[in-house]
Write a structure and sequence with these properties.
By secondary structure, the protein is α/β, with parallel strands linked by helices. About 35% of the residues lie in helices and about 25% in strands. The protein has a domain of about 300 residues: TIM Barrel (Alpha-Beta Barrel), CATH 3.20.20. Strands 1, 2, 3, 4, 5, 17, 18, 19 and 20 form a 9-stranded mixed beta sheet that branches. It is globular. Bound molecules: zinc ion. The site of zinc ion (ZN) has 5 residues, from loops. GO terms for molecular function: hydrolase activity, acting on carbon-nitrogen (but not peptide) bonds.
């Protein structure tokens, strides 16, 4: 256990108002972290005793807030796509380049591990203390999670089908059911290992990769397994127009209606990303039931604005989902893993989509990125600062120029400073990130390894791409090389 940590006289704190079930501001607060928990949180008392051996942090010019909960990321595959995916898309597929890239680009284990290290450092730098890591497992996966000190839900992916394409306007599903079954069995072992980890910070999350790539019987088994083990469940659903059209072709109903029908929507279900609901303008299906179904079943939406907004698409109405009772949480999906900037973009997109200032605001997105995610993971002790909660805390530097003047520190953080003002990130009372660096996670060699691995990935794309192109031909540099 780390030494007790006392933050004295914090200028601002975001505290949990339990009766009202919402965050509130408090000024001039003492916060004591001890034995992995928030041991005390009260108005500053200059005469209060300091526990033996405690580290004392001067809280004047600090905002103390709960650690952010990121419920959808792919840290092992996100960074190899940096510099590749930002301007890449297939116009015939509503601009998304997902299907083409997944077929052409395969990152090796060295690249996965190095990318993961850098991605975890990014996650922490933006104040994340809990993260759902959805990946293809590889040997060092859990060891790197443990090394980071973060609280991680490991979601080893499994699927019966892989996407392919033979022409820009078509996506094909290449089925291999034995493979899906074997991946599910392997995933169970990895989740068990995570749950049994001594740190108490690793957990499993059941992750059939996509609603359209897993057969009904395996999906039913997966949700039953989540129920039996008490683990959360997640899958990609309503994330692409191509997927929604295919699911309607197969079942005559939208993927969300089908998921409800086969029992996948539960209070422990996280939907990545439930963007293309029946009411979405790019779908225009005749029903208007999807959002209501998600709410009725108590499922959570993992809202990740950036990767979809890149293709001119996004979840249209954050406010309407919330108003209809959907629990909203935040994820970063891809790089950059900047959940603070995702909150800002969510506000901007929601207001632009529906021309309503109330469609989203600082309070509602911050709630989603903390309590919303914690509820989805079944952890009422996360995402809030109150006595007895987990000691997952972020210290924000109010002296940073972009936080000035700190009249409303969350607005300053979300709309102005973002990660630049994040000074220190604490998980279970232990500092995992301080002054711009992870304290436990080794990232020294990662950048070099990642660059070499990415170069191999781009070169080898020639053997996988539907037109036999290299990575540089699929996604040319943004400027010609002079
Ligand atoms: Zn995803």
């Amino acid at each position: 256990m780390p030494a007790p940590l006392l933050i004295r006289d914090a200028t601002w704190a975001v505290v949990w108002d339990a009766p009202a079930k919402r965050h509130a501001y408090a000024r001039g607060m003492d916060v004591l972290l001890q034995d992995g928990r928030v041991a005390a949180i009260a108005r500053h008392d200059p005469d209060a005793p300091v526990p033996a051996g405690a580290e004392v942090v001067d809280g004047r010019r600090l905002l103390v807030m709960p650690g952010l909960v990121n419920i959808h990321t792919h840290p092992t595959s996100a960074l190899p796509a940096r510099g590749v995916r930002e301007d890449h898309g297939v116009p015939e597929q509503q601009m998304t380049g997902l299907f083409e890239r997944l077929q052409a680009f395969r990152i090796d284990q060295e690249g996965q591990a190095a990318g993961m290290r850098l991605a975890y450092a990014e996650l922490m730098s933006a104040g994340v203390t809990s993260v759902v890591d959805l990946s293809q497992p590889f040997p060092d996966w859990l060891a790197i999670m443990r090394e980071s000190g973060l609280r991680v839900w490991a979601g080893p992916g499994f699927a019966d089908a892989q996407w392919g394409m033979a022409a820009p306007q078509t996506v094909t599903w290449m089925w291999n059911r034995e493979n899906g079954r074997a991946q599910f069995e392997a995933a169970k072992r990895v989740m068990q290992e995570a749950d049994a980890d001594n740190s108490g910070r690793l957990h499993g999350i059941v992750f059939p990769a996509q609603i359209d790539t897993v057969e009904e019987d395996l999906l039913r088994e997966a949700i039953a397994h989540a129920g039996e083990t008490g683990r959360p469940f997640t899958t990609h659903i309503a994330q692409a127009v191509v997927e929604v059209r295919e699911m309607i072709r197969r079942h005559g109903i939208t993927p969300i209606q089908w998921a409800a029908k086969i029992g996948l929507l539960t209070p422990r279900s996280i939907l990545g990303h439930a963007i293309f609901v029946d009411e979405h303008s790019s779908i225009g299906w005749h029903t208007a039931r999807d959002i209501g179904l998600v709410a009725e079943h108590g499922a959570t939406v993992a809202h990740c604005p950036t990767p979809f907004a890149l293709y001119g698409e996004h979840l249209k109405h954050f406010g309407k989902y919330r108003a209809r009772g959907v629990n909203m949480g935040f994820g970063t999906d891809c790089a950059p893993h900047n959940i603070i900037e995702e909150m800002r973009l969510a506000i901007v997109l929601a207001r632009n989509a529906v021309r309503d200032i109330a469609a989203a605001d600082t309070n509602s997105v911050f709630h989603a990125a903390t309590v919303g995610g914690a509820e989805a993971l079944g952890r009422p002790d996360l995402g809030r600062l109150e006595k007895g909660a987990a000691a997952d805390v972020v210290l924000v530097d109010l002296a940073h120029p972009l936080m000035s003047p700190p009249r409303d520190p969350l607005r300053a953080l979300l709309f102005h400073a973002a990660d630049r003002a994040v000074k220190r990130v604490i998980v279970a009372g232990e500092t995992v990130f301080a002054e711009g660096r992870p304290t436990r996670l080794d990232v020294a060699e990662a950048a070099g390894i990642l660059a070499e691995s990415q170069a191999r990935m781009l070169r080898d794309a020639r053997g996988r791409d539907w037109r036999g192109r290299s990575g540089d031909e699929i996604a040319p540099l943004s400027l010609p090389l002079h």
